[in-house]
Structures are given as C-alpha cells and as structure tokens.
Amino acid sequence: MAKRPASSFDSAIDEITSDGGNITVIAPVAHLARDHRGLNIIDAHVVCHDKADFVREISRLSSDISSRYIEIGRYLIEAKDRLGHGEFEPMIEAELPFGARQAQRLMVVAKAIDDGIFPRDQLPPSHSTVYELVSLKAEERERAIEEGVVNPEVTREDVIAFRKLVRGDRGPRPLTSPGAINSRIRKLEAQRESINAEIARLHALLR
C-alpha cells in the first residue's frame, strides 16, 4: 500500500507527544454540545484561569473518567497550552489522579475526536481502545473503517491484533468481535444487491 503524506491530525499528535510546540486550544462550547456519541459531554465549559482551576476541574471529571475522558483531554490540552511545561508537567505528576502517560493519551484521543478522524457513533466507549484506533497510521485507519474494525463493540485487543496484522501485510484480519462481523455482513449484503441488480440488467439485454 502506497504511503500517503502525514495528515494534519498526525502532525497534531506529534505536537502533543513532543516536548515542544503549542497545542490547539480545546473546542468552544458550541462544539462540545454537538458530540453525538452520548458520552455525557456537558454544554458548559468552565473557564480555567490558572493551575488551580485546571486541577479542580480535571480532578472533578476524573471521578467519572470512563464517560468524561473527552472533556478531561480537552482541559489537558488547554492547560498545556496556557501553563507551559514549567507548570503543566509538575501539575500532572503531583496534583492529578493519573500520570503523564495517561494524560498524553487523553489529549491525543480528545484531539482526534474533535478532528473527526472516525465516525463518532462508531467509536467504542473505552478511551484506551479509542487511543489504539487513533494511533493507527492514516492508511491503517482507512483500512480499519473498510474492514469493520471501527465499531462500538471493538476491543483494545482487536485493534492491537489488527495493527500487527496490517503491518505484517498478511491480508484481511480474522473477524472476532460481533460488531466487526456484523459490519462485514452489511458490506457484503450491499455488494450482493448490487451484483444481483447488474445480473438482472444483463439478462434483460439478452431478451
């Protein structure tokens, strides 16, 4: 498969995961209200003026991280942009209920979801699984969508297995999760309908 130029999202991941560079400030309130996945993204965004504000809001949301991880990631991106490394990294290590590695992943996931690199209604609820999906290369993400890997029931293990398979270039991955199997069935049924219609058209020409 031919390599494609890095997307703007891939460049953004490099910015988030590197020591230098500024991070785009989180989406405005109007965008937060348009999250269609039902992940409890609240409309109101509390404006944080200093480190204490960020610590308070991120800590509050972290008590329900499984459904509020997008908000947490957005606050982290904003904090990194406003505070700088001198305050941001010590804040994570000393004052937040998770470490630097998880903070980095939450930022990457939030950035990816806001950029819309996957259909939101097809993403699984686990932020660790979403992280594995968004960490795929651009061409791998396209293939993941085509093969039905991106679905609400996919597991982290499924995504890791898919990545190993495509990077080894050993052909289509075996389908294991119900979501992936159902997605593949729908694609094949659509192809069958198209083929049957073409066969009927050709038979009509022979009459």
What would you say this structure looks like, in words?
It comes from Paramagnetospirillum kuznetsovii. InterPro entries: DUF3102. It holds the Pfam family DUF3102. The protein is mainly α and 207 residues long. It has two domains: 7-135, no CATH class; 138-207, no CATH class. 63% of the residues lie in helices and 0% in strands. The protein is built from ten helices and no strands. The model is unreliable at 19-43 (pLDDT under 50).
Give the tally of structural domains.
2
Mean pLDDT, to the nearest integer, reads 79
- Low-confidence spans: pLDDT under 50, at least 5 residues? 19-43
Helix run count: 10
Question: Which structural class do the helices and strands define?
Answer: mainly alpha
Q: Which of globular, elongated, flat, extended, rod-shaped describes the shape?
A: elongated
> What fraction of residues sit in β-strands?
under 5%
Major sheet attributes: none
What is the number of strand segments?
A: 0
User: What percent of residues adopt helix (DSSP H or I)?
Assistant: 55-70%
Pfam families: DUF3102 (PF11300)
Organism: Paramagnetospirillum kuznetsovii
Protein name: DUF3102 domain-containing protein
InterPro entries: DUF3102
